[in-house]
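Work package 3, deliverable 3.1, input record:
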Amino acid sequence: MAEKIIQFKVFRYKQGDPEPHYDTFMVTVNERTTVLDALETIRRDQDGTLTFRHSCHHASCGTCGMRVNGREVLACVTNVMELGTSEVTVEPLQNAPLISDLVVDMSGFYETYSQAHMPLIRESEYLTESEVAEGVPFHMRLESCLECGLCLSACPVVGTDPDYIGPATLAAVWRVVQEPRGEDPEALLAWIDSEQGCWRCHAAMECTEVCPSNVDPGGAIMALRGELTRRKIGRLFGKA
Amino acid sequence: MANYHVVIIGGGGTGAALAHDLALRGIRVTVVERGEVTSGTTGRHHGLLHSGARYAVKDQESAKECIQENMILRKIAPGSFELNDGLFVAITEEDLAYYDEFMEGCAVCGIPTRTLTREEALRLEPNLNPEVKLAVQVPDGTMDAMRLPLRFFATAKHNGAVIKPFTEVISLNMEGKTVTGVHVRDHTTGKEYDIGADIVVNAAGPWAEKIARMAGVDVPVQPSPGVLVAVWGRYNNMVINRLHRSGDGDIIVPQRELSIIGTSSWVVDDPDQLEVPEEHIRLMYEKGAEMIPAIKHAKMRAAWSAARPLIGSRGATTGRELSRTFKCFDHADEGVEGFVTITGGKATTARAMAETTADVVVRKLGIDAPCRTREVVLLPHTAYYT
Amino acid sequence: MVETTQLNVRRRQRRPGAWLHVRRRHVGSWAFALNRLAGLGLVLYLILHLFVLSLLAKGPATWNDFVALAKSPLILPLDIILLAGILYHGLNGIRVALIGVGIGVRQHKALFWTLMLIAAVLLLLGTWGFITV
């Protein structure tokens, strides 16, 4: 298998540092190597103090979100050679407080996201022609959102406005509106029908572009607006 | 109650369940993990909520553990699983010949089964190999490998446990032959410091032996990796297993919009050196396609290895000969006080591993505090962060 | 709160210029950034335009001086830029209004390029109009 030596420029910061800096590491990669593989190799063989989040290695846990060559990706499914550059820059996500190196603090994300109360399990829209096995109520699957924060890092509005509810949470609210599962979609719609809610979006659609899991948060935000607009117009004529 | 402090080394599924168990028993807990939580073996496992049927013939201890824990997890972590059940499919005559042993094993282990004809199986799973001869339905499910342990961590945290990721154990502090705490480096600051403990629990999975040596004891842990391949596309709702003696690539677990084919098995000395042999990736596709032909052309999302922590001394060749059960070692038996190791096991049995270990811990501390983890419903995983 | 060492954690800061960082972004972000810039430009133009109109109140001589200036060939590029700004902001604005209520969201990129094509055609026509009239 073909191999190449790639130069990784990695963002470094430890608590107490006055400023961050970049460290350079040379790593031999092959056709299968992902950015996460490279970071693990660096940590094991070159610098055991490098901190980065990762867990599942297959784009399901969402913890390895970072910016590679300036773009938000999940490191575990980003193939190094396919990036096409001999120097690869690795930086933490934006719009989240930095803890160290590539690790950001996700508690802000979850403080907002948890308010959507989106259950983890949904009805599966796949394989509808299959019968359901006896004892199984319906075909179910885990929700698509990986809580990776790539959308928040990429969104220009999240960058400029820390109070914006943000694409991930809005997409979750839309999912509850579509499939309540015992939650309260009306209360959620009232919450996001606000200046910091779905109306704050400027349709850059960057969230949908970077989402690794087909959540389409941009589409969800517009769908929420469509829903709210329909209701407002309906109320207008309903009252008349 | 005296303010006992237990330090748990290892922030994987076992550490999570143990922190939860001990916190419920009123013990002060600190978990130290060198990376992000579940970044060792736990986060990257297949994601199977095991019915245990896979072990019903050859490893009945593990099979019974699995089905019991399967039922408990459904109760204490509701809403965390794709509960579509699973099928064991017979594709060849050889597979069919295994049926009787399999059914007997499941009965002995208490695993509920339902036998389906070829037609019934294909109605449930139209993408199955049309050569399928029969299928057996079992209570398999899909779990999110990270988010389930996160529920244990969340609940433990809200009950006072302190979870410290990016905190690596450099050495154990000892007074004579008693472990008194851990010496750690916090990688977010670069600073080193000590954490005192009445008991240190080694829950480091395949790294358990490395940690045990810091106390001068030996723990027979054989790291045994296997390759997993995730592909785009959801070809089945139910977990699809091959009805045969455990082998490679004989499980396909659906998860979100992906299908995970696994796995293989070999042994290594160092769990930090995990390769992903190209032949194993091909093997996963090949074996997966024997059950679901369409998967042969599915686009790969990721291929990775995870190291099982198997109990058993060196001498194993592939790892498949070792049991998947777990064991708790009280090192006082070897003259080292204040130190306990829990190893082996599976993601599905983490809670049971924790119960056994916590029982040993409270016995050592001289406390009378029973386990409550079978009943307490866990907080949602988001509570870990809020 | 998860116990992270909070000593010097860099708080999430407001980055007012974040919307301008389009280098590695996709067409939607470019469209938004350009829309904002065009909008700002048009506001400035509006102020200028109102000032110009106020010259009417200063009598025919002042007004005629202005018209002579406005007919100079140096003004033509500025007029083209102005027309481009109006067309861009207006047509992309239609796109934003549509997707903003859930219409054409999936096709927002195709919608963008189609409207830009129309804008380009109208710009060419307009430029020809500026030159010939």
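Residues 26-132 of chain C form a domain with the 3 helical TM bundles of succinate and fumarate reductases fold (CATH 1.20.1300.10).
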